[in-house]
Amino acid sequence: MTAATHGPGAVGTRGPVKVIGAGLLGASLGLALRGAGVEVQLADASPQALALARDLGAGDIPDPADTAAPSIVVVATPPDVAAVAVIEALRAHPGAVVTDVASVKAPIEEEVLATSRPAELDVSRYVGSHPMAGRERSGAAAAHADLFAGRPWVIVPHAGSAEDAVLAVRTLAADVGSAPVRMGASEHDDAVALVSHLPQLAATLVATRLVDAPEEALALAGQGLRDVTRIAASDPQLWSTILVGNAAPVAAVLRQLREDLDQLLEPLDRSAEHGPDAPGATGPLAQAVAAGNRGVERIPGKHGGAPRRYSEVTALVPDEPGALARLLAEVGEEGVNLEDLHLEHSAGQRVGLARISVLPAAAGPLEKALERRGWQVVAP
Amino acid sequence: MTAATHGPGAVGTRGPVKVIGAGLLGASLGLALRGAGVEVQLADASPQALALARDLGAGDIPDPADTAAPSIVVVATPPDVAAVAVIEALRAHPGAVVTDVASVKAPIEEEVLATSRPAELDVSRYVGSHPMAGRERSGAAAAHADLFAGRPWVIVPHAGSAEDAVLAVRTLAADVGSAPVRMGASEHDDAVALVSHLPQLAATLVATRLVDAPEEALALAGQGLRDVTRIAASDPQLWSTILVGNAAPVAAVLRQLREDLDQLLEPLDRSAEHGPDAPGATGPLAQAVAAGNRGVERIPGKHGGAPRRYSEVTALVPDEPGALARLLAEVGEEGVNLEDLHLEHSAGQRVGLARISVLPAAAGPLEKALERRGWQVVAP
């Protein structure tokens, strides 16, 4: 069974597409475009990285003397050299639309636009972009044609970008299965500081508190701690580069969080000093938790739909091959679509809890059906 | 199919057990004990709550004139009245072991021990405890016999607790399927501040930053933000009570996090002012992320075993009933045990990503097997 997210028939991009930088993103893009029947030219400062990407099928290494002019150039270099590569590409390929895929946009846009004065550079052909695709591994060896499938790809035109250039980048993004979203550069950088860089730092900060914690304390870790700290396992080198690249927006949102944190310390200190019934302790803490409730409710649901509260049905699952699959097969047999799933394990037990999110109307009937089928449905 | 976590044959608790407080924890405990064949006496200040718990099968409402003396009394009242209830129980039942199940231990222990001087109260029969069981709903109506299954239950003796009293509470905890862990009161309170209350507040603080965020920014939310903020949806009233009850340890660990946060702001500010290549920017940020790596690696794996790195196999799953179940069934058919599972959804696509954690040795063969079976295995 194959999920058909895109096929050659639906492709709008006219090749050749030149991809500069044969790392994870560049090579994955090459694979995806060639899978859709688009000609790909590869370039990389490292001959070895280039050969690897070619051998993996990500594109051709064109002969400079005998190469069709690219219609689009995608700069997929490390972010600190992206602006220079964009400027070079605009000069080298006067007929091409040029985009880059770096995760921070305003500094690159500024550098490109600054170079265009005095004026010999046609920056109307430049449109920045940012595919929000997985980055846990790096290098062409980890490349995959489906890297972009189902991910947002932010299209970031500047004030002088031509609309046909915007459309070309948007079409390319859609052709590799991603969901294009249009945004300004600062707006994009503020957005990723908030929805990507801040959670990364929060996870890092909580996990850092565990470094010197007693082992007995860690033995009490539950699913909450695991969820909050999961992304704290991210690559330090990659993340330090991302953070310095977007330093001002990240520092701003981190300062806002620190202000909220200071406001939490006040009622906690009051309560530590005067006891749990101290006036001005419980109220502010309840209000703080309620504000978090409102924030988390704003995160859009699956498929970009409006946030929707699902109901959870929780069942005990023995820790043996196939047990969870049997449970989910029976959920499917009941005609219920699983909206989300969390597995929860605890110390010392050979069973886990499967927390199944379903539409609220389906929860009651599903609980009954699972119990009828012999599953232990438990309080969440 | 039923997960046999415990059965009447293995029960060590001699009844009757008296449960004071017929809320979620008390009623669930009653259900679990009666399921194991132990006699349960229920008590609650509210006659209605009491009748509800009895009707649900959590225990009997004993006739004061004609009641066997309990061998164990479990105080499952709200935490702010737990110490008073423990003291009353020690007085009323001179032959019984008394425990409570409140989520904070040192203040209750102090209050009980303070009352024992001058001396007429036999506090050697008191052993505090804390079952780390789900608390997302409250009240007897949400009670379930499996609430404690697979969860740690912290046993918190004080210096004067008799060892046979400790053993009785430990046996009770094991009889309802939980995993007993022994700890001192302050040690317990510090531990839950770190592994439970701090992640709750971190999730709340990140989610609070979303309250006024532009909708376009929220549309870029990925799995990282969802994981970090999931528990920010918790009940404000419940959590404000938990936090004031453990205010000093929570404030202490929150201050430590704030110090780490301030250390992150320095290199970010330097980089915002002097650019991404500023000296002293990348290095400290990489070190901070690396410290988080070390912390998250200390969280014990499934079943309390040593932390173990699993490998992830990621496959595309169409959003239709039964698709995930088919995938997991085929994982089971390959003889591979699923260690953990995350579902990832993105805006605008009718497919999801299933990230399957397996033992490292199983990852390569599983990827090949799934591809052979027609699944799209993608880069994580």
TrEMBL record, chains A, B:
Gene3D superfamilies: 6-phosphogluconate dehydrogenase C-terminal like domain (1.10.3660.10), NAD(P)-binding Rossmann-like Domain (3.40.50.720). Pathway: Amino-acid biosynthesis; L-tyrosine biosynthesis; (4-hydroxyphenyl)pyruvate from prephenate (NAD(+) route): step 1/1. It holds the Pfam family PDH_N. This is Prephenate dehydrogenase. The keyword Cytoplasm does not apply. It comes from the Bacteria. It catalyses: prephenate + NAD(+) = 3-(4-hydroxyphenyl)pyruvate + CO2 + NADH. PANTHER family: PREPHENATE DEHYDROGENASE, PREPHENATE DEHYDROGENASE [NADP(+)]. One of its GO terms (biological process) is tyrosine biosynthetic process. Residues 15-303 form the Prephenate/arogenate dehydrogenase domain. InterPro entries: 6-PGluconate_DH-like_C_sf (IPR008927), ACT-like_dom_sf (IPR045865), ACT_dom (IPR002912), NAD(P)-bd_dom_sf (IPR036291), PDH_C (IPR046825), PDH_N (IPR046826), Preph/Arog_dehydrog (IPR050812), Prephen_DH (IPR003099). GO terms for molecular function: NAD+ binding; prephenate dehydrogenase (NAD+) activity; prephenate dehydrogenase (NADP+) activity. Its EC number is 1.3.1.12. Coiled coil: none annotated. Belongs to the prephenate/arogenate dehydrogenase family.
